[in-house]
Design goal:
20% strand, alpha/beta, 390 residues, binds zinc ion
């Protein structure tokens, strides 16, 4: 086993980092758009871009706009720069993807976790990453439900982890840089970069499933918070008459919207064990107990969306998570409850449903690793400083 690597130094200036990120996310992008976006003069941009071009990290692409005059020579990241891996861990499964530098999917693995023991999880994740068959991996991003501080998982309830140095464990297995992130932050990163929110400056990401997840994008950036992963959206009161959550709140988001609570309510009513997807199917088929429970959940979801839009002043919401089937079977009721919670003079809240499953979450983890790699570009080594860690 290799020794865990030390956290890498950042040598880029703030302006160089901003340039690298702008080209990564918006490339190919014209020099005029870059000087506008970064408030730079054209000669400053030329000077700043030079080392990226010299090191093969960026390329000048042919301008196909057909405009007359000086060629615009838009900048882009070098397309074959490196591969990245993204991993989304749930309590019992790992979703692993390989992507290119643009976070486009190139390979995918889904494997069960046979144990929640951190060392063993690190070994199983490393095996799945190797099975992707990429020999040009520059870094790995790992996302999971819980709080992440620096390179440690402080608390991950679905895995039963407390204070686990998971980035170091996995780096020791793989020998390439590993970046950890809360899964909602990583998903929001995916949505704003290449997902449903890519053209929307501000939106809320709301996920339902085993838990309730919440993240926020404002001015095109994911809002950072030391509390990402604490689950602060999970216990917001949504119904005065709902069931109780494990903390004893009546009708909070967890009690109303988690798949476990919804399945338990219908199982109780029917006096037999019914799974979440079965509850949705029963509601569509007109079963009275399932219809009542799903209807109340839809009301609660509409209220939650309304609250989120009202309090953040962002009029768009991306819905995701493995329980999002609730929205498709009860969309009208969700929209009615949302309309009731909005002032009629307020703009209409746009809803976007990401039903691509955990692949989007894993791509989000890769996106976090890609941006981290760009933050740690070095110009003092050989060309292609991006893959210096391999
Ligand atoms: Zn609660």
């Amino acid at each position: 086993m290799m020794k865990p690597m030390q956290p890498r130094a950042t040598t880029l200036t703030e302006t160089e980092r901003a340039l690298a990120r702008a080209v990564l996310i918006h490339g190919p992008i014209s020099r005029a758009a870059l000087t506008d976006r970064l408030a730079l003069s054209p000669p400053s941009l030329t000077r700043l871009a030079k080392p990226f071009l010299d090191h093969g990290l960026m390329v000048e692409v042919e301008d196909r706009s057909g405009s007359i005059g000086r060629p615009a020579r838009p900048l882009d990241v070098a397309p074959d720069l490196a591969s990245f891996a993204g991993v989304k861990l749930t309590g019992d499964t790992m979703h692993v993807v390989a992507t290119d530098v643009r976070a486009n999917l190139v390979a995918r693995e889904v494997r069960p976790l046979t144990s929640a023991e951190p060392i063993q999880v690190a070994g199983e994740v490393a095996a799945a990453v190797r099975a992707l068959g990429r020999n040009d991996l520059a870094a790995v991003g790992v996302s999971l439900g819980g709080t992440v501080r620096e390179r440690r998982v402080e608390y991950a309830p679905f895995l039963g982890w407390q204070d686990v140095p998971f980035a170091d464990l996995l780096e020791a297995e793989l020998g390439i840089p590993v970046v950890l992130e809360n899964d909602l932050v990583a998903l929001a990163e995916a949505e704003r970069w290449f997902g449903l929110g890519r053209d929307i400056p501000g939106f809320v990401v709301l996920t339902i499933g085993a838990g309730i997840g919440y993240a926020l994008v404002v001015h095109g950036e994911v809002v950072p918070s030391p509390d990402a992963g604490v689950g602060l959206g999970g216990h917001i009161p949504l119904s005065a008459t709902g069931p109780i959550c494990q903390d004893g709140h009546r009708g909070c988001a967890q009690a109303m919207l988690t798949s476990g609570s919804i399945a338990a309510q219908v199982s109780g009513a029917l006096q037999c064990a019914v799974g979440y997807e079965e509850v949705l199917a029963l509601a569509v088929a007109g079963d009275p107990a399932a219809t009542t429970v799903v209807g109340s959940a839809a009301d609660a979801l509409g209220r939650f969306i309304g609250l989120a839009a009202n309090l953040t002043l962002q009029p768009a919401v991306v819905l995701a998570g493995e329980g999002i089937g609730l929205f498709s079977v009860a969309e009208e009721r969700v929209r009615d409850a949302l309309a009731e919670s909005r002032d009629p003079r307020a703009v209409e809240v746009k809803l976007y449903v990401d039903d691509s499953g955990f692949t989007a979450w894993a791509r989000g983890a890769a996106a976090v690793a890609i941006q981290d790699a760009f933050d740690h570009i070095r110009f003092d080594g050989p060309p292609r400083g991006l893959v210096a860690g391999v």
